[in-house]
Amino acid sequence: MNNLTIYECDDIIKTIESKAREEDGEISAEDIQVIVEAQTTSVEKLGKLVNYISFLNQFCDTADNEMKRIGERKRITKNRLESIKTYLIPYVQQRNGITVGTHRLSIRTSKAIVLADGFNNPMYCNTKTEIVPDKPKIKESIESGIEVQGAVLENRVHLQVK
Description:
Layout (H helix, E strand, L loop, with lengths): L5 H17 L6 H66 L3 E3 L2 E13 L9 E3 L3 E3 L1 H9 L7 E11 L1
Antiparallel strand pairs: 1-2, 2-5, 3-4
């Protein structure tokens, strides 16, 4: 009896109830024992399953909270990292790069497109369900002397740590 699933336990109860109806409500002691064992096993298995469901729900909630916590830590760490790099850039720039232990600090310049809020020049945007500026195309146009309204080419300085 202990290896029955909760569904098999329900089937036994239905079978015994059907048998009792056929026999004018009479149920033998043996049949009652089967019902009690089946009912107990069914409730125990159902209880274990409900506990497991509860555990899984709590695990999901804990995982969600942990993901939020880790995301927040990542955001804070990235901000701290950018602050330190911003602080070091003038120092490294003045010295045209330096070596610290096994690390080489150098400066790399790049160009980045800065778009005005609401930039939607169709000539320089890829269209999907929303207007998405085509920054490489905008950059190419600005570098070749074409003025693109709402966009400027900005020189940026980045710290490289190798």
